[in-house]
Specification:
Elements lengths: L2 E4 L5 E4 L37 E7 L3 H16 L5 E5 L9 E2 L7 H5 L1 E5 L3 H9 L12 E4 L14 H22 L3 E7 L7 H12 L4 E5 L5 E4 L2 E8 L2 E10 L1
Parallel strand pairs: 3-8, 3-9, 4-6, 4-7, 5-12, 7-8
Antiparallel strand pairs: 1-2, 2-12, 9-10, 10-11, 11-12
Helix pairs in contact: 3-4
């Protein structure tokens, strides 16, 4: 059954209660037990419909939230003995918050996560291209790239062309690794758009990202809400814990 309720903006919302497993990569981040129809119409490339990879992108201003959500994805997959490569520009100053009831920071999980630090976009590109020379048994099962906007390329912010280039390389790399390992590689990416962009100005950027990513989720301000299309997921961050509150479909 779906529980109907009214939102503050008078749009009707349905809290999803169907007890079926989610087909979204988000279920590695939050304990979601409903089917989420979030598949984007991606750019028609030879690898976009390949079964060898699946991807999720989180866009939001809050670094704490982005760090916590992507770190949880790494922990969840690591708990299943998957090998994770976690790429970011610098080390965490503190352990990000993790999701209540999902795998947490344990020695066994952390042993399956390899952290790589790249200050510039060129270093990230070299890291990805370098997978061509790595033996199959050393290739990751899950690739996480945190804060894509933080990788420097020149003095100015990344352009749409730059984002298209790196997301294309990330997509092709994940598909390439999956094909070599004969499995489905999971790719998780986060980034933050310029604060100066209005909601309308953000739309063409988001549409661009959808061409290169299976799922795109927007972190709305400081509201602790993830949005993809008409799906709204509310969560709470309390200290070192993230708690799932509701999964709603806005009509």
């Amino acid at each position: 059954m779906a529980l109907s309720l009214k939102m503050a903006d008078n749009k009707e919302s349905h809290v999803l209660r169907d007890e079926v497993r989610s087909n979204s990569l988000l279920n590695a981040i939050l304990p979601i037990d409903v089917i989420l129809e979030t598949q984007n119409t991606m750019m028609a490339t030879h690898f976009s419909k390949s079964p060898y990879w699946q991807s999720l992108l989180i866009i939001g201003q809050s670094q704490v939230q982005r760090n916590g959500l992507l770190f949880q994805a790494a922990l969840t997959h690591a708990s299943s003995d998957k090998q994770i490569m976690y790429v970011m520009t610098k080390e965490f100053t503190r352990i990000p918050p993790t999701t209540h009831s999902l795998p947490n920071v344990e020695t066994g999980n952390m042993a399956n996560i390899t952290f790589k630090y790249c200050q510039e976009m060129k270093s990230l590109e070299e890291l990805l291209i370098g997978f061509c020379t790595i033996p199959n048994e050393l290739l990751p099962d899950v690739l996480v790239v945190n804060g894509l906007n933080e990788y420097k390329r020149g003095k100015g912010p990344l352009s749409q062309f730059h984002y298209s280039s790196i997301l294309s390389l990330l997509s092709e790399t994940a598909e390439y690794i999956g094909r070599r390992k004969k499995t489905t590689i999971m790719l998780y990416v986060s980034l933050s758009l310029l604060l100066a962009l209005t909601v309308e100005e953000q739309k063409p950027w988001i549409e661009l990202f959808k061409q290169w990513t299976h799922e795109v989720w927007i972190l709305e301000g400081n509201s602790n809400r993830l949005v993809s299309g008409n799906i709204h997921i509310q969560f709470t961050v309390l200290g070192s814990n993230i708690f799932l509150r509701t999964v709603s479909k806005i009509d």
